[in-house]
Predict the structure of Serine--tRNA ligase.
Amino acid sequence: MHDIRAIRDDPAAFDAAMRRRGLAAVAPRLLAIDKMRREAQTLAQDLQTRRNEISRQIGETKRRGGETSALEADAVALQKDRERHEEEAKRQEDAAKAALETLPNSLDPDVPDGADERDNVVVHEVGARRDFGFSPRQHFELGEALGLMDFSLAAKLAGSRFVVLRGALARLERALGQFMLDLHTGEHGYEEAVVPLLVNDAAMYGTGQLPKFKEDLFRTEDGRWLIPTAEVPLTNFAAGEILPLSALPLRLTALTECFRAEAGAAGRDTRGMLRQHQFRKVEMVSIITPEASAGEHERMTRAAETVLERLGLPYRRVLLCAGDTGFSAAKTFDLEVWLPGQQAWREISSCSNCRDFQARRMNARFRGKDGRVAGFVHTLNGSGVALGRALIAVMENYQEADGSIAIPSALRPYLGGLARIGEK
């Protein structure tokens, strides 16, 4: 959410920021609404002042034994006028809020301009791509041949974009989650949390999923929402709070199921596990002071990169351009892993600095050293990483010519020393 006072102070700068997002000038409309709101509020306050004066006159007149009916009639009329202007101020306030809550975050200055993913900038590439000596297969070919990945059974149970994992592949996915949690809590300073998978409107609104992305979400009949990522409950730990400086930075991680309708993904990645309605992910969230958020963004991204490095997976870091940066983010690094079966780089983690955008929506603030409220916190979130895509990457990068899959050494302790997944 944007601060209307900042827009009022420099509307040209705000429109320039929104143009980078591909939006036409919006400041004039916002300021017109804001002007009507402030005028209505001023009129309501003036009327209240006049009514207070009349009330004083009524009291004095009564003490003198005088007639007050005319004054009382004026007071009633002023009260009705005041209520009318207050209602108008509320209408304009709601209109301003409705307009502001659909506008994306302003981008950091170093985010490159661009329309879509083709304009993203590769920051660095880590790890050598393996020379297989044979034509590598895609994960679903490997999994189905092993009899451990079943899309037909999942479709019978739930429909398209679901999968059933069995045996060693199910265990491998579980091992990935345990490995990531142990790494983030043991080495990166994150506190593990178990959170609700169902949240209310306020939680979804606070992180920016509502109202703009309603169609991408699943809602229950009692009005709750299935989380698209643990970012939602974890970030909302700070909602409505004034955190002491001693509580920051607050670093949280959770392994949860995630649910996404994939409303805009028709026809994309229909084979395999790349784009599912339900998947598991380890999420990282940081809640921090404004001056520390840029450094925290780098720290978080390195934590996600460490996962891929420990797994021995080739990856690259990509700085997203203006047109590809998410709604709530001011700056985003994507990590893309190499999938030899597809012969393509695919996103496996996204780490974003939202600055105070989410904090304003959820009214999350902090106190300075003097104990006074110092302002809004900054929030960051990142995948650390998605289990399904990590499973895909391990399968494709560690496959052998006979269709078996070697286990990365970092995961073997979680699999009882198992070194290879062979035929069922």
